[in-house]
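User: Batch of two.

Assistant: Item 1 of 2:
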Amino acid sequence: MRFRLTPRETSFYDMFAASADNIVTGSKLLMELLGADASARAEIAERMRAAEHAGDDATHAIFHQLNSSFITPFDREDIYNLASSLDDIMDFMEEAVDLVVLYNVEELPRGVEQQIEVLARAAELTAEAMPNLRTMDNLTEYWIEVNRLENQADQIHRKLLAMLFNGKYEAIEVLKLKQIVDVLEEAADAFEHVANTVETIAVKES
């Protein structure tokens, strides 16, 4: 790591860690949704909405700190990109849960549980990685594994689309389910964006 003569605002590290921990909460709610019947989904969606609002608050706190700090631990643009990508993950997960409830989906297609399992694992890895931004240690395996998970998510997504268009589902049901699996895929992409930003930061700081 480069030697610095100037002090740095360190509260960003705690805020990134808190944001990532909140994403783990969101991924657990997604997992809970899988095993819930239709009557319980509205309550899960309400808790997911609260988690998404908490994520928004965390993101706004990072932006406020960024705008009020003269010296930052790493490039301002990278801080902004990292905070925005973390926020995107929560937005996509909340949207997926909300769509399941709004569309009154009785049963999610096989394969969605695999999507959510990938997101849950990516959430755990991201939460474990954020505290390491302080030292930039032990991050390489993190972004490599998240990229691998995103590739896995792509494969799962393609298989889900093939199944949705195999003629088993009514056209309106295809539209509903496709939107849900697409949003879950966007969440996987957002995890990769976070990992790529962390890699960029680590390279600059090395």
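Item 2 of 2:
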Amino acid sequence: MQVSNDMSLISLVTHASLPVQLIMLLLLAISIMSWTYIFAKRLAIKRAHSQTRRFEDDFWSGGDLSMLQQAVASRRDEQGALARIFDAGMTEFLKARRTNTNGDVNTILDGPRRAMRAAYQREMDSLESHLNFLASAGSVSPYIGLLGTVWGIMHAFIGLSNMQQATLASVAPGIAEALIATAIGLFAAIPAVVAYNRYTHDIDRLSIRFDSFVDEFLNILQRQVR
């Protein structure tokens, strides 16, 4: 075991054993990916809230639904998740009214209902993307860091067995090097857990708004058929 009097963070990392350094590198990569997804998901959810609120204002303003559907279809990717759900339902509704001549309400509304449910699921899958990685990073990173700590301490004590006289000064650097792995693991885990819980709550709120809109829109279509 190499004993160093330099207790700076960089020195402790560079003097750590190779397995501990590899674990630190893995945790650093997990942390970088977590922060990338955290910022990207933050922007995506914020944009989804803004687009949903804007579309709800347009929808409930009392304008013609066909005109609104044409406006949404012309800029579908820019309108947001709720607008795409509406577009899917309205498109199927217009097709059903043209092809169904007997005027059966359930038959006409079955297509829009299925189309909106499918669009709803696609939008939720998109919003929930990468959340599983944050959950995994938050739960696994501390254990990976603990593995590095255990390995580092074991390596430190094995090195002490070759020394005639063991002192606190000789064992401290090895233990400090090992504990850095746990610290990096916590640094990777804590933001991932906090972000996962926050974003899950925000996405659940959007999901409720989407689900409520589908039911309300189907009621509007039902009144139009009758």
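The helical segments are 9-14, 18-59, 65-74, 76-79, 81-99, 105-127, 131-160, 168-225.
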